[in-house]
């Protein structure tokens, strides 16, 4: 009992720190203080998004991730993906059970699928390492390894958020909000519509009365690719070389045209995917910084030049690390300021929808996460590092990602409802995260 109480206190302290910093951010955003007003939040958020977060992710990955550690951490990308997949399934159940309105379905799925894999783990993990009752050993080693794990988690989560969740919410917004394309113009470089690209079907006709035995009808082809026309021309030439047997020529022509059609379908499919995916969002600054950090940490020549006190350019690493330290408090202040909108706005979101999201994220999803991680440990998919297992488990118990508010703004749907849902889920996160982190530390320790 004493050990459990010590673990509970160790889990409670980081959550209290998050609550205090969030409360400060909310206070700074009030009309009376008005330090973090709308314009200020926009500028501070840009600095955090483009400078602080990339510096934090890149510096920690470069410093603590090596090629050998990457081989040990291969399960984390899969684990983060499982949080999104299981969360999506739970979101679908929430929609069916609560009968959520059509304009909220994309938001419900996003809230259940995407967790806050960014600033909250950055605060919770190092703070737990520094507590006396921590089961993770030396505080400095624990903090260093924990920041590396969390940085990797943040980078992977960002990729999944802006590919999987972003497009899932885009599809629901285009299907459920008729006329949104006319009312809300997408930002520059964004494609919020879902155009269907018809795949042209090459046509061929066989004229048995023709002396040549077959005729390829290309007059109905409206291809915009000169390469396709060249291929069809080559087919005509090949037909002349096949012979005069009608059946053989017909078989050859049909198979050749189907091959052209197959590659045309692939080409149009890739064009569709490229048009729908927002690559500028997928490769966000933090993701790019993670790739740079991987390269520096895993390539020995780069590591010798930049990492370590004896490195010739270690001042670059130190500078980036110092800049990155500003990311954690800044992101938490912004969360508090953004949650103020949920207090001030009234929405038509049903209480049963909020309760369904809370149950899915704080009860069912962490329970499923425990089973997944225990299964991975049992079959040797992950190495038995208590801190690593703790981070894997923590990924299942976090509140919804704050970037969901940005996505709803991009599509112009359910913005007020998103603020209210985030307010309640983050208010209850203090209780849920405290209890789950206590259980996780007991489980891995």
TrEMBL record:
<dbReference type="GO" id="GO:0005789">
    <property type="term" value="C:endoplasmic reticulum membrane"/>
</dbReference>
<comment type="function">
    <text>Involved in cellular auxin homeostasis by regulating auxin metabolism. Regulates intracellular auxin accumulation at the endoplasmic reticulum and thus auxin availability for nuclear auxin signaling.</text>
</comment>
<keyword id="KW-1133">Transmembrane helix</keyword>
<dbReference type="InterPro" id="IPR045033">
    <property type="entry name" value="PILS1/3/4/5/7"/>
</dbReference>
<dbReference type="Pfam" id="PF03547">
    <property type="entry name" value="Mem_trans"/>
</dbReference>
<feature type="region of interest" description="Disordered">
    <location>
        <begin position="176"/>
        <end position="221"/>
    </location>
</feature>
<feature type="transmembrane region" description="Helical">
    <location>
        <begin position="6"/>
        <end position="28"/>
    </location>
</feature>
<comment type="similarity">
    <text>Belongs to the auxin efflux carrier (TC 2.A.69.2) family.</text>
</comment>
<keyword id="KW-0472">Membrane</keyword>
<keyword id="KW-0813">Transport</keyword>
<protein>
    <recommendedName>
        <fullName>Protein PIN-LIKES 3</fullName>
    </recommendedName>
</protein>
<feature type="transmembrane region" description="Helical">
    <location>
        <begin position="320"/>
        <end position="340"/>
    </location>
</feature>
<feature type="transmembrane region" description="Helical">
    <location>
        <begin position="73"/>
        <end position="95"/>
    </location>
</feature>
<dbReference type="GO" id="GO:0009734">
    <property type="term" value="P:auxin-activated signaling pathway"/>
</dbReference>
<feature type="transmembrane region" description="Helical">
    <location>
        <begin position="282"/>
        <end position="300"/>
    </location>
</feature>
<dbReference type="GO" id="GO:0080162">
    <property type="term" value="P:endoplasmic reticulum to cytosol auxin transport"/>
</dbReference>
<feature type="compositionally biased region" description="Polar residues">
    <location>
        <begin position="191"/>
        <end position="220"/>
    </location>
</feature>
<feature type="transmembrane region" description="Helical">
    <location>
        <begin position="387"/>
        <end position="408"/>
    </location>
</feature>
<keyword id="KW-0256">Endoplasmic reticulum</keyword>
<feature type="transmembrane region" description="Helical">
    <location>
        <begin position="420"/>
        <end position="444"/>
    </location>
</feature>
<keyword id="KW-0812">Transmembrane</keyword>
<feature type="transmembrane region" description="Helical">
    <location>
        <begin position="107"/>
        <end position="128"/>
    </location>
</feature>
<feature type="transmembrane region" description="Helical">
    <location>
        <begin position="148"/>
        <end position="166"/>
    </location>
</feature>
<feature type="transmembrane region" description="Helical">
    <location>
        <begin position="352"/>
        <end position="375"/>
    </location>
</feature>
<dbReference type="InterPro" id="IPR004776">
    <property type="entry name" value="Mem_transp_PIN-like"/>
</dbReference>
<keyword id="KW-0927">Auxin signaling pathway</keyword>
């Amino acid at each position: 009992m004493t050990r459990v109480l010590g673990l509970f206190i160790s889990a409670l302290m980081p959550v209290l720190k998050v609550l205090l910093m969030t409360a400060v951010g909310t206070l700074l955003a009030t009309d009376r203080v008005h330090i973090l007003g709308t314009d200020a939040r926009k500028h501070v958020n840009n600095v955090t998004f483009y400078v602080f977060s990339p510096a934090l992710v890149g510096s920690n990955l470069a410093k603590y991730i090596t090629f050998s550690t990457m081989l040990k951490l291969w399960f984390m990308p899969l684990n983060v993906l499982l949080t999104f997949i299981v969360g999506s399934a739970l979101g679908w159940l929430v929609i069916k059970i609560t009968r959520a309105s059509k304009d909220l379905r994309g938001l419900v799925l996003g809230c259940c699928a995407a967790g806050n894999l960014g600033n909250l783990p950055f605060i919770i993990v190092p703070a737990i390492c520094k507590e006396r009752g921590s089961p993770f050993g030396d505080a400095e080693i624990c903090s260093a390894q924990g920041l590396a794990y969390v940085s990797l988690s943040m980078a992977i989560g960002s990729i999944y958020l802006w590919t999987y969740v972003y497009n899932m919410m885009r599809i629901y917004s285009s299907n459920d909000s008729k006329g949104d394309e006319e009312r809300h113009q997408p930002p520059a470089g964004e494609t919020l519509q879902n155009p269907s690209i018809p795949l042209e079907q090459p046509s061929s006709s066989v004229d048995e009365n023709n002396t040549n035995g077959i005729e390829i009808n290309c007059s109905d082809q409206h291809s915009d690719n000169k390469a396709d026309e060249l291929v069809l021309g080559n087919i005509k030439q090949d037909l002349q070389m096949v012979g005069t047997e009608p059946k053989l020529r017909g078989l050859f022509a049909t198979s050749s045209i189907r091959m052209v059609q197959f590659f045309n379908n692939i080409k149009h499919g890739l064009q569709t995917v490229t048009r729908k995916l927002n690559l500028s969002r997928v490769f966000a600054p933090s993701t790019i910084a993670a790739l740079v950090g991987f390269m520096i940490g895993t390539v020995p020549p780069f590591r010798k030049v930049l990492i370590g006190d004896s490195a010739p350019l270690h001042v670059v690493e130190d500078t980036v690390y110092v800049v990155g330290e500003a990311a954690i408090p800044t992101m938490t202040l912004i969360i508090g300021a953004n949650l103020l909108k949920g207090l001030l706005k009234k929405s038509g979101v049903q209480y049963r929808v909020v309760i369904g999201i809370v149950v899915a994220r704080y009860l069912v999803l962490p329970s499923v996460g425990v089973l997944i991680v225990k299964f991975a440990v049992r079959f040797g998919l992950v190495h038995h590092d208590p801190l690593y297992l703790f981070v894997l488990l923590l990924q299942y118990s976090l509140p919804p990602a704050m970037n969901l508010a940005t996505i709803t703004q991009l599509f112009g749907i359910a913005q007020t409802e998103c603020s209210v849902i985030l307010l309640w889920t983050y208010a209850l996160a203090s209780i849920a995260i405290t209890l789950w982190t206590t259980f996780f530390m007991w489980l891995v320790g």
